[in-house]
Amino acid sequence: MVERKGLLVGVVALAVIVVLVLTVVLSYNSLISKDQNVNNKWSNIEVEIQRQVELVPQLLQQENVSMYFEQGLLENITSLRTQWLNTMADRSVNEQVNFSTEFMVQMGAFMSVVESYPAIQSTDTIRDIIVSLEGTQNRIAAARIFYNDAVNEYNTAILSFPNNMLAGTFGFEQASYFQQGQ
Amino acid sequence: MVVGLAVLAIVIGGTIAATYMVLRPSDTGRDEGIPELKYYTTDLAGVLTESDLYYIDEICYEVNLNSSCEIAVVVVNSTQPYDINYYALRTFQYNGIGKEGRDNGVLVVVATDDGSWRIEVGYGLEGILTDVRVNRLAQEYLLPNMTAGGYGDGLFELTFAMGMIMETEYSGDRGTDRTYPISWIPLTWGDWALVGVAYIFLAVVTKGWALRPLLFLIAIMSGGRGGFGGGRSGGGGASGR
Q1: Is A149 within 8 Å of chain B by CB?
Q2: Residue A181, domain member (yes or no)
Q3: Which of A29, A143, B185, B223 can bridge B230 by disulfide, Cβ–Cβ 3.0-4.6 Å?
Q4: Rounded to 5°, angle at Cα B64 from B61 and B69
Q5: Is A17 within the bounds of a domain?
Q6: Which letter does DSSP use for residue B138 in this model?
Q7: What percentage of chain A exceeds 70 in pLDDT?
Q8: Residue B181 has pLDDT above 90, yes or no
Q9: How many domains does chain B have?
Q10: A131·B236 Cβ contact <8 A
Q11: Which is nearest to A109 in space by CA: A80, A89, A87, A84?
């Protein structure tokens, strides 16, 4: 009678342990997968920013283009461009996201100028570069939605039970949203 | 005992079906004002004639048949309250233009009162229909015709030009819709296998009793809306006014 009871307790305890281990494994894998998703969605944006970084100087080199832009704006963009090319590769996704918000603000101002002065588009080459730039802007807008969705899913998972207990232990931190900026 | 088993079977069958539906590419919810497209060409502004609709549809049909690429055309008075880029992207996503996996769809949106247009290109076509190229096509065929009475011609010429490009340059898989063994039920071999397993299980356990809900589920599992394949776009293309 006592033996039976001991056996039962042992089996139950084992079952509980198995369930706990499974939970931890599933939870960890789920967080990893969501984290990877965030990184994937960010790299879609990164690719477009890279393209913008390359296109902007191409545009400014065309004849009679740079005169339409305020010197301050051009300096900002150049400086941000340089930072992007030199330092972003080593940064974490969150750092890149935060940096990019500022870059996006400047690009927004840049594109506003382009749109306000149709006279800029004086050659086919210029027009094509501008179309490409507008394309990247639009892609970033779309990719931002997907990225923020991924961040939302990931952050919610980290903060919910039971993942929240594990997140700290395994070093999962919240991801940054890609804000609109000013 | 039998009732218990029946309930169990329904629960399990339901779980299989539900899991399957969850794992499929997710549906984008519908924003208000984003149209559900039932045909290749949709004219909500009333500027296209019957024959315009017919000829444009025919191009889209041929292109789909020959290259599996899907072209959709939408004409509206205005895309308000959305700007045309957002409107086009959401319409594209909601209707899933292009074949699932190949993402070879193109959506043309023209807003007659706004005077704006957008050509939204799916991921799978961005290589051949670049932003620059698509903008040129619009400049050449669409813009000169953005006038009352001209939309039909403009859209026809644009669709024709894009269709030619797709047919000659598309290098992806051109097979007809992922093989549907029974063409009017949108399930692939893999889908059928899963259905088969659930079907057999339920049939055996409930002696045929629990099968009706399953048939209903089959009917509502499909890739895109109104016949479009479930393709995706990431914001590529060009627009203007």
Answers
A1: no
A2: no
A3: B223
A4: 140
A5: no
A6: I
A7: 97
A8: no
A9: 1
A10: no
A11: A80
How many Cβ pairs within 8 Å bridge chains A and B? 36
- Residue B169 belongs to a domain: yes
Q: pTM higher than 0.80 for the full model? A: no
Which residue of B89, B233, B236 is in closest CB contact with A135?
B236
Q: Would residue B211 count as lying in a domain?
A: no
**How close A130 gets to chain B, by Cα (Å)?**
9
Mean local confidence (pLDDT), B30-39: 85
Is B45 inside any structural domain?
yes
**Separation of alpha carbons A169 and B183, rounded Å:** 51
- Residue B134, domain CATH: 3.10.310.50
The pair of three-digit structure tokens given for residue A104, joined into one six-digit string: 């996006």
A131 shares contact with chain B (CB less than 8 Å): yes
Q: What is the pLDDT of residue A78?
A: 92
Stretch 51-80 of chain A: residues touching chain B, C-beta under 8 Å: none
Report the chain B residue with the minimal C-alpha distance to residue A134: B238
Residue contact A139–B234, C-beta within 8 A: yes
- With respect to residue A1, please indicate whether it lies within any of the assigned structural domains: no
**Substitution target from B131, B133, B143 for chain A, most A beta carbons within 10 A:** B131
Number of domains in chain A: 1
Q: Which of B89, B131, B233 lies closest to A135 in CB terms?
A: B131
Tell me the residue range of the domain where A101 lies.
Answer: 39-170
Chain A residues lying within 8 Å of B236, measured CB to CB: 135, 138-139
| Selected residue of A139, A144, A146 to mutate for chain B interface (largest B Cβ count, 10 A) | A139
For residue A180, report the phi and psi dihedrals to the nearest 5 degrees. Answer: -70, -35
In a domain, A122, yes or no: yes
CA distance A144 to chain B (A): 10
User: Considering the domain boundaries, does residue B25 fall inside one?
Assistant: no
pLDDT digits (tens, 9 = 90+) for B100-110: 889 999 999 99
Structure tokens at A150: 């991924």
pLDDT in tens, B140-179: 999 999 988 899 999 999 999 999 999 999 988 887 655 5
| Sheet strand arrangement including B70-76 | B41-43, B70-76, B105-111, B116-122, B233-240
Nearest CA to CA, how far is A128 from chain B (Å)?
A: 6
Nearest C-alpha neighbor of A31 from the set A173, A177, A176: A173
Helical packing angle, A2-61 and A163-170, nearest 10°: 60
Does the ipTM surpass 0.90? no
In terms of Cα–Cα distance, which of B210, B217, B226, B164 is closest to B194? B217
Residues of the domain holding B146: 41-173+232-240
